[in-house]
């Protein structure tokens, strides 16, 4: 039987920032990792999302924390695998439900995948260049992706490339908040890592030119990491990272 030992985080959870609280993939609705309650249950709930310390950002882009969250400064170095994974077909839509996102945190939403070479519930990518971008939204039609998310009841969807070879993948989904990004460090990265088994008969995989590492892909000189969101011309904003791989 599960019992709540303590809800120490209940106050902090009302603060700003955010994370993915629910995922729908392959017709199944999964809870996200809930940093303000999960750690206080016994047993700790099993999730498809790699655990992270809270709703705060990663700002030092050379820390492993930029991969799947973490708080190295306070001794929580990166993250660990989750016990479960979702299952969904290549070509299907994955729905990500964020906690209430603050209006002030303007910026892009970017989604990567990385293929696990073996059991995803044990795999840590480290600094290997294994991540490829499958979706991105920056500033378009007069709106930042973060604002479009708020206007869309915190729901963001992306499609798993139809031709993608089956296997186990980490979905690395992030919002980069730019409200303090006029200098480096400043950009706030909010990554979430979701484990998924992709099914289907696809055979495609990205060539090495699409693959990046986290940390590594973003630095203080990567286009789109330093940007003055108040004075800059948002129409000229470059979303950081490699080109999108569409399969
Ligand atoms: C980020 O972390 C690296 C490695 O620990 C450190 O050398 C660097 O000074 C940090 N950068 C900032 C801006 O804090
Ligand atoms: C998003 O998740 C929350 C928490 O589970 C839930 O209350 C809400 O209904 C979800 N939103 C949608 C649109 O499904
Ligand atoms: C662009 O923004 C306008 C005004 O907010 C809206 O009516 C229109 O549907 C948007 N178009 C797209 C393609 O999102
Ligand atoms: C907005 O939410 C709707 C309904 O949940 C969804 O179908 C749509 O794909 C979402 N838009 C984006 C850009 O993710
Ligand atoms: C912003 O950039 C766009 C695209 O380059 C350009 O068309 C527009 O004139 C610029 N706006 C301002 C205010 O400079
Ligand atoms: Cu914040």
Automatic annotation (TrEMBL):
Keyword terms of this UniProt record: Carbohydrate metabolism, Cellulose degradation, Copper, Hydrolase, Metal-binding, Monooxygenase, Oxidoreductase, Polysaccharide degradation, Signal
Q: Which reaction does it catalyse?
A: [(1->4)-beta-D-glucosyl]n+m + reduced acceptor + O2 = 4-dehydro-beta-D-glucosyl-[(1->4)-beta-D-glucosyl]n-1 + [(1->4)-beta-D-glucosyl]m + acceptor + H2O
EC class, as a word, reads oxidoreductase
Keyword Oxidoreductase applies = yes
Look up the record and name the cofactor or cofactors this protein needs. Cu(2+)
EC number(s): the record gives 1.14.99.56
What is a biological process (GO) this protein takes part in?
cellulose catabolic process
- In this chain the Auxiliary Activity family 9 catalytic domain maps to 17-234
Superkingdom is: Eukaryota
Per the record's keyword annotation, is Zinc-finger included, yes or no? no
Q: Which InterPro entries match?
A: AA9 (IPR049892), AA9_LPMO (IPR005103)
Q: Which family does it belong to?
A: Belongs to the polysaccharide monooxygenase AA9 family.
Q: State what protein this is by name.
A: lytic cellulose monooxygenase (C4-dehydrogenating)
Give the classification, highest ranks.
Answer: Eukaryota, environmental samples
């Amino acid at each position: 039987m599960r019992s709540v030992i303590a809800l120490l985080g209940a106050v902090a959870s009302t603060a700003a920032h955010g994370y993915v609280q629910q995922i729908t993939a392959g017709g199944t609705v999964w809870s996200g990792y809930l940093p303000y309650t999960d750690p206080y249950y016994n047993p700790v709930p099993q999730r498809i999302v790699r655990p992270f310390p809270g709703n705060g950002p990663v700002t030092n882009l050379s820390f492993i924390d930029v991969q799947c969250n973490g708080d190295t400064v306070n001794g929580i170095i990166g993250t660990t695998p989750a016990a479960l994974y979702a299952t969904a077909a290549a070509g299907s839509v994955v729905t990500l439900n964020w906690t209430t996102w603050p209006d002030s945190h303007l910026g892009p939403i970017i989604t990567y995948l990385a293929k696990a070479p073996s059991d995803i519930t044990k795999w840590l990518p480290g600094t290997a260049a294994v991540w490829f971008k499958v979706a991105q939204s920056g500033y378009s039609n007069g709106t930042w992706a973060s604002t479009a998310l708020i206007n869309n009841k915190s729901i963001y969807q992306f499609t798993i490339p139809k031709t993608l070879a089956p296997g186990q993948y980490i979905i690395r989904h992030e919002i980069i908040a730019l409200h303090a990004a006029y200098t480096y460090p400043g950009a706030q990265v909010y990554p979430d890592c979701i484990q998924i088994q992709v099914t289907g008969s696809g055979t495609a995989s990205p060539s090495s030119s699409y693959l990046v590492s986290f940390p590594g892909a973003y630095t203080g000189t990567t286009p789109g990491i330093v940007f003055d969101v108040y004075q800059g011309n948002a129409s000229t904003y470059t979303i950081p990272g490699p080109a999108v791989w569409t399969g």
